[in-house]
Amino acid sequence: MKLPSLFRRTPFRLTLLFLALFVATASAVLAYVYVASASEARARAEAGVRAEVEALTAVYRTRGVDALNQALVDRTLRGGSYLYLLMDKDRKTITGNISTSPLEPGAAVQGGRWDDFRLTDTDEAGKVRKRQAIGVEMPLAGGEQLFVGEDIGDIEAYLARLTQALWGAMIMVLILGIGGGLVISRRVEKSMSGLNRVVMAVQEGDLKVRAPVTHSGDELDELGQGLNTMLDRLEASMASIRHAGDAIAHDLRSPLTRMRAKLEVALMDADAGKVSGVDALGVALDEADLLLKTFNTVLAIARLQAGGAPDPKVFDAAELATDMAELYEPSGEDKGLEFSSEIEKGLMIEGNQPFLAQALANIIDNAIKYTPSGGAVKFRARRRSSGEIEFSVTDTGPGVPDEDRERVLQRFVRLDNSRTEAGSGLGLSLVTAVAEAHGGRVQLDEGPGAYGGQGPGLRVALVLPPASGTASGTN
Fold first, then answer.
1. 304 and 433 in contact (C-beta within 8 Å)?
2. Residue 112: what are its φ and ψ, rounded to 5°?
3. What is the overall mean pLDDT for the chain?
4. Which end of the chain has less neighbouring CB within 10 Å, N or C?
5. Running DSSP on this structure, what letter comes out for residue 447?
6. Are 46 and 131 in contact (CB under 8 A)?
7. What is the β-pairing status of strands 128-139 and 145-151?
8. What is the dihedral sign for C-alpha 242, 243, 244, 248?
9. Distance between CA atoms of 190 and 14, rounded to whole angstroms?
10. How far, in Å, CA of 395 to CA of 223, rounded?
């Protein structure tokens, strides 16, 4: 048999759980109050009876049974809640305010025999009632028996009133528990409903929806904030992937169009007998290679922008810089350039070495490509005073105007003075993507100025953070 839907709903279950915990805790507190109050009242009554017994037995020891008898008479006339009875060896009454001992005859016990019993009396209305009492029967040295007790009916009445008060408190606890449980469960239901709506919307493809956040600082609010942060990153990743796809489609349109145009020209030249079919195929292969290179570069930029540097490792960038300098020094000399390098030791960074090598290769290759023969290119790797690692390439080429230095870092941007050189305009955009993926940046500055009648030059710096724990330096 299935429960009604009301009992299967989360708010009702939460209400029952909260109520059960609340009532259990409150019941334990109220039970402790009752037990502690009853124990305290009983302990006080027993302490009063013991005090009376000690006082009366002291009178008996020092002055005898007659003095004890007189003390009992005085206490009886004085009134109060205490009960007194002095009996002889045969348990016959000598004096007291009760006629017989309420305790059954038994063997004498050291320290007396304690017991609870009921007193029967008549109230002012003539109604017979029974009242609770406690007492102790003490054997005396002469064989007499001394009974001292106390009527604790008032204590019982107090405990009855306390019980009624506790039952009233329990009813209030139930009411407050149900109310508090409903409030809490409704709040939880509202928060969970908001989160469920977000999850369902994301499942349907809406990545712009966000969970409501009240900034209350509780666990549900933290869950909502965490979900929103995750959705922000997911939306950014998906946008980057979509942008990468759009960019690849857009960016490859021009190379494909150029390739098709060159192939048409090659075919027309082949038909006219100007070139052979093999030469036409060679043109097609060259254009295909350039197209593949462009595609791979765009794809690498998209991956870096979407997911950061893959497989980062800590390594000495000085060794990488040395390898790059040795690799490009012959190229610079072949073009008639003065190629020099200045590399510090111990430049520890954390990143993807192949991507960093590609970025450095793009910077150095651009400097060699655009610097006229007779110029100079200098490659440096050093640690800044801030602890950052800087790779810089300074040339004496035509440079880049201030207004174009931000633009040349974008994809497929080529200035007029570079149109005659081969390339796709992706070199510095890849360098920028690598820098950002490693938490760094690219800086373009003025070169050394006029050098041997050549241009103002350009200084391109790739600045990266050092590996953790290696940021010391004084340079």
1. yes
2. 90, 160
3. 76
4. N
5. -
6. no
7. antiparallel
8. positive
9. 13
10. 53
